Amino acid sequence: MNLLKKHYLIIFLLALAVCSTVNAQEAYKPTWESLDSRPIPDWFQDAKFGVFIHWGPYSVPAWSPKGTYSEWYQYWLQSKSLFGNGKFKGDEIVNFHNKTYGEDFSYYDFGEMFKADLFNPNDWAELFEKAGAKYIVLTSKHHDGFTLWPNKQANDRGFAWNSMEVGAKRDLVGELSEAVKKTDVKMGLYYSLYEWYHPWWQKDKERFVDEHFIPQVKDLVTKYSPDILWADGEWDMEDEKWKSKAFLAWLFNESNVKESIVVNDRWGKGIRKHHGGYFTTEYEAATPEFNKPWEECRGMGFSFGYNRNEDAQDYNSPKALVLTLVNIVSTGGNLLLDIGPDARGRIPVIMQERLLQIGSWLETNGEAIYGTRPWNNSFQWSLEGEKNYIPKQHYLGGDVILKQTIDPEPGYAVKELFFTQNDKAYYAILPKWNEEVVIRNFKASEQAKISLLATGEVLNGKQAGEDFIIELPSYQPNKMKATDVYAYAIKITKK
After folding, report:
1. Which residues 6+ apart lie within 8 Å of 443 measured at CB?
2. Could you tell me the pTM of the whole model?
3. What would the pLDDT profile of 81-91 be if each residue is shown by its tens digit?
C-alpha cells in the first residue's frame, strides 16, 4: 500500500471513529435524566386537538352505570366492584351481565361478537380531518389484553385473543393506520402495559414483562410506525420492574421511529407527570403548570368506551367542549377528546356531530388555537368572587368549564377571557359576547390591527391606563356560522 493510500485510510478511520463517538454520545441512555432530555417534536405542541378512540370487545356490551368507564367492563364483572362518579354497590355490572348474557357467558365470548363489519377506516379518517384533529390515538390493546392487530403474544394466555383471528378477522390497527396516514392527521397508538387477568401478570410479573409486554409493544411499533405511543396501565409496578427505561432507550435509539416517535408519561408507578415524554391529565379541570408539553384526555360523556347507558344530557354540549379546548390551549396543553365506536365499527351519531361542530368552530377560529403558545396570563378572571370552582367528584365533567365561564355558582368569579399568541398576533377569546372587552394590564402596539375572526370585521381599540379596551359591534349572529357562537376570538396583531 503506497503512502497516499495509507494517508486516506488513516483519515477514513479517524472520521469513522469520530462518527462512532458522536453517535455514542447522542444515544439515549436508559436513565430518566437522559430520556427526559429528548425534545418533544414541535408538531405535537402545535397540534392542540386530537381524537382518542376506545374500541374493543367491551364495545359489545357497551354498558356501565353513568359516571363510570364502560371499557372497564371485564374488571367490574370479575372483581364485582365499581368506582367513578356516584355511589355504587359494586354488583351493577354483574347483575346487568347475568340478566343480559347469562351467568355462564364469559367476557372472552365478546371477542367473537366484536365484528367491526361496518368499520370503514377511510370514513373515520375523513371525519377526523373535518373535526380539525391533528392527531388520533387508537387503543391497540386495552387492559383486557385483546389486540386490534395480529400478534402472537396476544394468544399466549392459551387461546386466540386478537382481531385478526377472533370476531372481526381484520387487522384494525393496520387498516386505520393506512387510512389516516393518507391524510395530514398524525397516527397514534394507545397500549396498556398491564392486563387484568393474564395468568402471567397475576402469577409471574417478571415473565409477563419479559415474554409478553416487551416483545408485544416492540411488535406494535415495528409493524405500524406510529407517530405517538400512548402508554397506560402502568400504575401497579415501578418503572424498574416494567423495564420501561430500557424499552424507551431502544425506542429512541434503535426502532424504526427513533427520530419521530412521541411518547407520554405513563411508564411506571409514580412516573406520571414526572418523567417520560409529554405529561398527561385525565378528567381534570385545574390548569397545571408543567415544564413540558401536556395533554388532557376525556370523553364526550364520562365513559371512554361507548356506553349505551349514557343519554343525550350526559354528553357535553359543543360549547362546553370548545371552551374546554380553549381553556386547555390557553395554558399550553392539548385536548385529546375521546370517542367510543360501537362493536360493528360505527361512530355514534352524537359523537360524529360533536366532532363536526368542533371542526366547524376551528375552521373559523383555528388560528387562535393551532401553533399558539400561552400569554403571561392564560386567562383573565372577573374582579369579584372566589376563583376556580371545582366540585368534589372523581371525574370532572364539561359542566365545570361552563360554571367557570358563563354559568357561575353564587359567589364565584368567572374566566372572562382566554389568551393565546403566536409570532404574529395575540388572541383574546371570549366565552360570551360583550360589546366592550377590557384586557387588564395589556398594551397593544400602536400599529396593531384588531379583528373578529368570526366575521373578519375590523375593531376599534384604545389604551386606558394599564388596560386595553376593544369595542365589539352590536351582536349580529346572522353574520356568523351557528358554531361560531361557542366562543369569540379577537385577533390583535403584534405590529
Report:
1. 463, 466, 468
2. 0.94
3. 999 988 999 99
